[in-house]
Every structure is written in structure tokens, then in C-alpha cells.
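#dry-run=false #mode=assembly
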Amino acid sequence: MFAEIITIGDEILIGQIVDTNSAHISKELNKIGVQVYQITSIQDDKEHILQALEDAKNRVDLVLVTGGLGPTRDDITKQCFIEFFDDDYVENEQVLQHIKELFLKYFNKEPLPSNLLQAQVPSKATILFNSYGTAPGMWMEKDDTVFVAMPGVPYEMKYLLKDSVLPKIIKNFNRPHIYHKTLLTYGMGESDIAHRISDWEENLPQHIKLSYLPALGRVRLRLSSKGADEQKLRNEVDGQMEIVHKMLSDIAVGFEGETSITQKIGELLIQQNKTLSLVESFTGGALAQEITRYAGASAFYRGGIIPYATELKISILGVSDELIKKHSVVSLPVAESMAERGSKIFQSDYSIATTGIAGPTKGDGDDEIGTVCIAIAAPNGVISEKFLFGKVRERVIQKSVSKAFEMLLKEISKN
Amino acid sequence: MFAEIITIGDEILIGQIVDTNSAHISKELNKIGVQVYQITSIQDDKEHILQALEDAKNRVDLVLVTGGLGPTRDDITKQCFIEFFDDDYVENEQVLQHIKELFLKYFNKEPLPSNLLQAQVPSKATILFNSYGTAPGMWMEKDDTVFVAMPGVPYEMKYLLKDSVLPKIIKNFNRPHIYHKTLLTYGMGESDIAHRISDWEENLPQHIKLSYLPALGRVRLRLSSKGADEQKLRNEVDGQMEIVHKMLSDIAVGFEGETSITQKIGELLIQQNKTLSLVESFTGGALAQEITRYAGASAFYRGGIIPYATELKISILGVSDELIKKHSVVSLPVAESMAERGSKIFQSDYSIATTGIAGPTKGDGDDEIGTVCIAIAAPNGVISEKFLFGKVRERVIQKSVSKAFEMLLKEISKN
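#status=ok
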């Protein structure tokens, strides 16, 4: 069984937005055994939409369409469905009531005529109720292919998918099981990893596929397989993963989904009943955002300080003026002092401190752009390292975030 | 002239990564007058890649392919190009030297045989030098369609595109001009906006297209047009934009690209010689990240504090214990006190403070999940507002970030 995702919207084709919907839909489909064969993004153009629907019909069993269901004139997906399915509009009473209620509750007013038009739907469609917005989803069939239209607003789409679309797919299709497992590694390049595990890779069963996903400072290794017997599938993939995990134990930090490096840090801290604070200079909140992305951070995360201006490192943090003058603001002694002061001020067991020059211009010192110092204050002392992370602002920050968590995890894991 | 982007990689089709490459490429192509007709994402599968190349050849003049050029076995794009163009491998001496130099410089070692294989390229290809990685780009032609292969690692792709691919496209193709201009608005829904500007929209010239891009708490309005005479194009679109900008002056904050709300805040603060600090509780660094995303923030951004644990609001910030007990930690008086303390500690003219319950579980107080208080301390006093932003952690944080900057901009704009 194969699916195609069609995302509609000029904003995608001109690069004004990044299409995150298709990644979300793909992930959810995989979980229920539906393999995505292709993702196609096209403009709000009638001829092109009709052509894409026709092409997809010949390729796959299930077509999920997002976008173009809004109340404004540039939204033409519903009209294209009417034409593609040779259908007419009917008014859906439930959708009409829902629109009126939403407007009353959230805006305390009557909907506009353009909003009420959203209750006009193709007569042949099964309507999928959208609790979070005014545009309903639609489920239609043509020549054994199912077409589902969903709004493009990500959170509306997500709820509609979860509450209506996925359950209906599960009910209507026979699906195999798809199983992925991804090992997270830090600190070694993909070709070195491939070299180290090449004998194992060569002997992998045909039906288990290995993929390498390199990113800044880390490589993810994914094993994927598909089959009728879920337990057998899991046993096989998990078994192979166990072997490769052992071969890479020095650089592996766990498995994706089950854990991320920040989640692993959180788990260990909670386990050890320890706390964390963050003192971020040039990373400006990037570490904090990663830590607070997950609910439950409040169990171990005390808080953080972002002394962006150099003088604040002195006035708020209490780093000594002389230390900065002697070593420069981007130096190991200053990073260490920042981390120690962080631990003290926030009464935390661990504290990460970052100081560096992300670019594109030089900072208050003489240091080269891309120079980064990271320190970790731990119960048994403070450690620090200096790096040169290139000239691209975004990369310097991202690499520093990766490295800081890698250093912290190492320290915590010692206990 | 039309282009298609083909992104190759199982990781895209299973939703393990979000494809950001195609948005970047689309945006850059638009700037040089190349319209992207379709974006197609497919798996690392030979038959499918060959089919997609063939389909694209029949649709467009230019096909940009990313992904599958790495040194590991799952990378098969180059092999598919050899087959599609009925070609053979030759060794490229310049690429070979570059690979050796990269390994010596960054890893201080010899490349592995798998890395050296990256110097084997299709004989008919024009090689596009990749300064930032080992996989070169390739430019090939078949039946009047140009095919370009680039690595999938985003920063390698970006530099290759900028340094080699775009200049070669400019040289080889006759292109019209494409012009987009996007007005940023805050605080009104898309159907209300459409209602207000409907007369103007109805009378827009046929060749200028209006699109609505709704997101959390804001709507972007884009005008797009294409033509041979760039100046005429700009004059027309800018003229129409001026009209609609006036009609929406109460909710418009500027134009995309030219500015974002945080950039506008930065510009005004620099103009007025004022400074900003951030006191973020549940937003945990999200505001700081937005502010420090742009180089130059150090000219007005003093820094921030993230008192995640309630007691830190007292111990570090100096908010009074009684105030929190009396009003709850998520309350207007506490938010105001946080902002005022932030201004004081960071010696900043303005300070934003956030306190709230992002969920999914309740916090230290009795407040409903989604309750948010935002305060702005300004030179002429402190203002604050309370919101209810729903039950979805991610949305509560995102909406709060939007609202906080909206409130701050209003305050700054009073001067």
C-alpha cells in the first residue's frame, strides 16, 4: 500500500514557507504501516492541481492533500475537487453550526459570508469534522484511490489527521507494519562510521535497509524494514541495532524518539536528583529552548541567564573584570567562571556556560569569528573546551549547542 | 521558464527530517526569475529516481536535484545520473585533490577509499566545485532540459547553489523577473482582512496575484507578479501594496524580508538609543532566540534571565514572595514586577516579562493551562495583559512570543 502527499500553495513553491506538514503526515502514516511513495508540492493553479491529482491516482492507493481550503479567494482546492470528482456543492448543516459557534466563542461575533461558504462541500465527500478551524476535511474516492483534503494550517491539519483521517485509513486499508529505529551518534563522521561497521553492514539481511543521516556534529543511523508480522520485524531490527549499538558504544547516545540528547540529560538529572542552569552568551537562549522544549523540564531545570553584553557578565554574573581583561571575554577561564557563577546563583548542581563569537562581525575581543568556549560546572569541578566552528553564524550556534550537550552528558554520565 | 526541484532521501518520505532545502532553493530561484513549477520528494530508490527525472524532463526546463551524493552505500543519485544520461565514470583530479586537502586540514588524516570514490564523476557532467564538502555538484543536459545534482547537506547545498549553480543558470537561461512583496499584519483574522480590502482585491490587475498566509496571531499578505520589465513590475506591485498598506495601517508592521517584527523592534531601539532585556519564565528562551537570531542584536539587547523555577523569581529577580502568594505566580502584578526587576537588573530601557502555564500539566499555581501574562516595562511605566492561549504547549509558547513582540513594538512606537 502506497500513499502520496500533495501540498498545495504558492507560498511553498516560492520558498516563503517551509512545508512541515508533509513530514508530519509521513511520520504518522509510517506508524500505521502506510509507506509514502512521493511528496508533491504544487501551486494554487487549477490545471496543475487537477493534473497532480490524476498523476497521483495512477501511482498510489491513497492521496493526502493539504492547503487551499481557506475562506479567501486564493484558496481553490475545494473547487478542484468538485471538478475532479465531477461533483456539486451541498451545504453541510453540522459544519455551518460549528462555524457559527467558533465565531461566537472566540470572536464574539457573527461569521462573514466568506466563512459560511466553508460549509459548502462536495456532495460525494465524507466530511471530516475540524474541531480547531472552520474548513472541514473531505474524504473522496475515484477508481480505487482515496483522496483526502485537509487544511494547510499545521495545527488544524494535525488534529484532523489524528482524530479523523488516521482512524479512517486504519479501518479502510489492509496495511503491513513499517518499523524504523534510529541510533543517535555524536562526534564521528559518516564515512568513518561506515568504515567501522562495514562488515556488519555487508551482512545485513536484504529486507533491512541502513541509512546514514549526517548533520552538524552528529550522525543518525537508521534501520528500516517492512513486513506482515510486527513482532518478528521488531525483533529482527532491534537485534541488528543492538549489534551496531555495541560497535559504536563510544559515540552512541541512544535512540531517536525514545530519547534525544536533552531528554537523556533530563532523565539522568532527575534520576540523580540533580539540577541544571544555563549561562548563555552568544548562544542567546538556544540551549534553553532545547531544554524547555519538553514538558517536565521544571523537574531539573532551574533557569538561565543570558548576559549578552560583556559588562553584564561582570555586573550580573559576577565574573571578575580582571579575568576578562587578562584572558579576553572568549576564553576558557571566563567560560569556567561563568559556569561556576551560574551554579552558585541558580543553586544548581550543573551549569553550562557559553561564550563565543558567532559572527558575522567580531565581538568585544580580538578572537577570530567562530571561536567558542564552553564550560560545564559539575559537583566535582569545572571543565571547559575551546573550539573553532567556522564563519557561518547559524552553524557556529548549532554546533555549540550540540557540543555543549555532548559535554554535559559526558559529565553527568560519570556518576 | 520553469524549474522543478527533486529532493531525494528516505528520511524525507518517512518524516524523519523536514525538507528545508527546497524552500531555500525556491526562494533563490525566484530572485533570479526562475519559477518553480513543482517540488517532488522521492525515496532513495533507483527506479523511482529514474522515473522522476524522466517526468520532470517533460514538465520543465531546469531540474535541481538534492541528496544522495554522500560516501555511504545508501547514496545512489550519482549512479542514477550515470544510467539516466547513459554515461560512464571518470576521475576528476581537482575533486580528488580537494578531498585529500579537506581531510588533512580538518581531520589531520588520509581520506578513506569511500571518500576518494566521490571524485569519480559522470564523464558528460560539468563539475560544480563544492568548497564545503567532499561531494561535487554536477550539471548535465538531456533533450533541452538541464539537470543539476547537489548534495543534500543544507549548508553544502547553499554554498554550491550560490557560488556555482545560480551564476550558471543566469548565464544559460533567458529569464523574466519575478517580484513578490509581503505585508506583515498582526492581530486580525484572514477573513476579516479579506472583507475589509475586498473592493481593492476585486480590482487588482489580472497579472498581480494576492495570497493570504495565516499563522498564529498574524496574517501575511503577498502580492506576486512576473514580467519582462523589472522596474514596471516593481512600480505596479509597490503601488498596489501602498494602497493596501494604508487600508491596513492599524494592523500592519512592515514588509517581509525588508523587516520582521524583531528587526523592526531592533531598528527602532537603535534609532532611539534604547535597550532591551528579557525575563522569560515559561517561554524559556524563545524570545531571546528570536532577538539574537539577527547579527547586530548586541547594539540594543542587554541580555535576559530565565527564572524557570518559581523560587528563582524571588531569589534572583527579586520579585516579592508576598506578591506571588497573593496573586499567584501567573498574574499581572507578578509579570509587571518581573519586567520592572528585569529593567533594573539589566539596566535596560525596556524589558519584556512572561509568566504562564504552557502545559501539558499545571504549574505551581491554580491557573488553567494556557494562561499567560505578559508585561512590558517601558521608560514611562509598565503595561501588562493576560491571555488564554489553549492547551497545546507549542502553540501557547508561539502565540506568546508573537503577542509579546506585538506589545513591545506598540510601546516603542509611541515614542
